[in-house]
Amino acid sequence: MILAGTLAGAVEVETTFENSNFLIAAPEDGTGKRLWYDYDRFRATAAVREGNWFATAIGDIEHTLGQDYVNSASYRAASLLRSDTPVPTQTGTTHYGEGELYAQLYRLYGGYADGTHRVSLGLQKVSMGVGRLWNPTDLFNPKNPLALEPDEVYGVLALAYTYSLGELSQLTLVAAEREDHSHKYAGRIKGFLRVADVALNVVRADDVTMVGYEVEGEWGESGIALRSEGGWFHDRLLGQSFFQGIAGVDYTFENSLSLTLEWLHSSRSFADAPLLALVSGTPANLVRSGGYGGVAIGYEFDALLYGTFTTIVSAGDGSRFCSPVLSYSLADDATLGAGALLYGGASGSEFGDYEPTWYVNLKITF
Question: What pLDDT, on the 0 to 100 scale, is given for residue 5?
């Protein structure tokens, strides 16, 4: 149910409710057996606008049903992850029967925007980078291309300000407070230089410094989009400095087939140490190979059926990750999907020792 209306004083309010349910068959820790469990997320979104002022609140209720999975080591490890914010965004966990339940504040921010200025304060997503599979320069909300939902990322408690220098250029400043009450700062200046959008990014915190870039443009009038982002990092917790960046190409054919190619390069790999044991200011940038190739394909079979296929290959050992997904539109507000997280490679390689995960999901907006 999507509720929209205008109150007295020209206040516009839009409320959306969404339920995403996943039935998942995941490998049991170290046994080769398969565990079935149900993951459900109910999300409520409220967006308010009055003139140039705006506010958004998004809250979730999440539960996982399946006693064997809830008691597994992999679930316990995942449940320890929290947002890097000075106040908790997730409630304590409530046990019920064979499952667990908790609530989460996903986003809560407000601000002001006009043709020149945009300022926002609160729990929000700070976007950096132009990559589709990887965003190595995003030190605020890094996504995980290997996850079931790569775009589901924690917010940061931040003050963000953007000033439009002209129609095609802007300056952005960000200050975020972290869990330990230290701060992470970022500056970004972006403009159009003849044939491409170009940006310079700087991030500074107690544990990391980054100087990065973004470039995105079209190859003539071919419809082929070219893009790249990268950064020079100094990770003070690791005592390491390195470069990491991506280069990518996008093209959509007339028959609705879309193709994305992306390459991730890192001047430093961390294959010689257990990644979970490393204390780092750039945990999402700790890779086991100096290079990865990624391909993402999307195709609209008809007006109701859409498929995607994503694969990532490690240049270091040739192991691979694949994620095929089929989505069928049951109605304007309901989608049924089925997919898998598949792995391949030699034993001991980056992806070779993982067992596949299969799932079906139903998403309803009401």
Answer: 61
Decide if 200 contacts 171 (C-beta within 8 A).
no
Please, what sign has the CA dihedral across residues 328, 331, 332, 333? negative
Please check whether residue 229 is in contact with residue 245, taking contact to mean a CB–CB distance below 8 angstroms: yes
Give me the pLDDT at residue 9, please.
58
Band (81; pLDDT cuts 50, 70, 90): confident
Amino acid at 171: L
Q: Which residues pair with 161 in a beta bridge?
A: 119, 173
pLDDT at residue 241, as a whole number:
97
pLDDT tens string 196-207: 999 999 999 999
CA–CA separation, 83 and 125 (whole Å): 12
Those residues whose C-beta lies under 8 Å from the C-beta of residue 15, and which sit 6 or more positions away, are 1, 2, 3, 4, 44, 45, 46, 47
Q: Judging by beta carbons within 10 Å of its beta carbon (0-12, 13-18, 19+), is residue 296 exposed, middle or buried?
A: buried
* 25 alpha carbon, distance to own chain's centre: 23
Amino acid at 191: G
Pinpoint the alpha helices (H) of the chain: 67-70, 73-79
pTM for this model (two decimals): 0.92
Measured between its terminal Cα atoms, the distance across the chain in Å is: 3
